Amino acid sequence: MSGIDHARRQILAWGAAMAGATLAPGVTLFQLAQGRPPAEPASKVVRWGMLVDANRCAPDCDACVTACDKENGLSGARTPTSAQWIRKVTLTDLRGGPAKSAPVMCQHCAEPPCVDVCPTGASFKRADGIVLVDRHTCIGCRYCVMACPYQARSFVHEPVADQKPEVPRGKGCVESCTLCVHRIDRDRIPACVEACAATGHKAILFGNLNDPASEISQRIAQFSTTALRPDLKLNPGVRYLGL
Amino acid sequence: MADRSTGGGWHARARRLATAVALMPLYALCGAIIVALPTSAAEGTASRVPKPLFAISAPGQCVEDTQFMLRNHMELLKHHRDQTVHQGVRTTQHSLANCVACHASKETGRVTGSKDAFCESCHRFAAVTLDCFECHADRPVAGIATNAAPPGGVPR
Hints:
The structure holds two protein chains of two kinds.
Chain A: H1 2-19, E1 22-24, E2 27-28, H2 29-34, E3 48-53, H3 63-72, E4 86-91, E5 100-105, H4 113-117, E6 123-125, E7 131-133, H5 143-147, E8 154-155, E9 174-175, H6 181-184, H7 191-199, E10 204-208, H8 215-222, E11 225-226, E12 238-241
Parallel strand pairs in A: 3-12
Antiparallel strand pairs in A: 1-2, 3-10, 4-5, 6-7, 8-9, 11-12
Helix pairs in contact in A: 3-7
Chain B: H1 2-42, H2 66-87, H3 96-103, H4 118-126
């Protein structure tokens, strides 16, 4: 048994060494892992994240919110009981400074409190850092709704009809931003990022935080970015610039 | 007195037993006729048990053998759902969307919602609750990758 374990560890070590290796100029295995085939599970080599630039985000624009509603089949209603996965938050300096606006959604924490408190294991973090709810095991207790410091989770109170085939959702379960996992798995960027770029603001940048060569990593290395509630040390995958 | 009455009772019982034994083949014959009648009457038309009836949009070979699918489709779906939700595996061979793509009703385009719909007809027959479509879409939608996609493009 220990012999097998040893061999397995050796292979894993080689894999880890190769993952960082450059195959050709500008082409590394990090990039190959992003365009993974459908049969291949998500890998820890990648950690998906977003960088929101509050300087570029227009206070009167809600393209990301409407795109999210459309992509995921949300009603778009704003009653206290309607689901909302992404919302625009406006921050005003009390001394009269300029208002800053930025979208806030599930921050896809590396240490997610929602996963810690889930009694059934329905809240989980995927290998590539995306925090999700497995609705098949969710019992709707809403502990995660209480635990999330970003108030990112919604509970579905009403029966749902005409769901999107790629985004199944129904009454009695908790849900939140999935980082458009169904799109990521098919090499597409999240709907909010796409919509933001279409308006010309380009305030949301999506990419692989584990790849030092990716644009998002380079900008995080270059500029002073912040996490929301950094005091909680949750290491969110969504970071903010210019707040 | 007591002996005679006992003797008479014994004879009566023996006669009744003999009659019953003699009639047994007759009972058996009647039973056989009663059982056989509806079957022969219904032969060639419909079964006495209302079997599920449906017409699906894309009949033909399923992803696995039909008898295997009858018994094991739920296991395949559960296995695939866990792989998809937790690991992000997006193969289409055993995905629910792939089932719906072929098995949607010819008339309504759905797999539930009527007694003639594929999933619902059989689940009604077996009296098994069908929960999938409380959350999942029960009709095929263009653009979603399934095996039923036109040849040429690799479904991704």
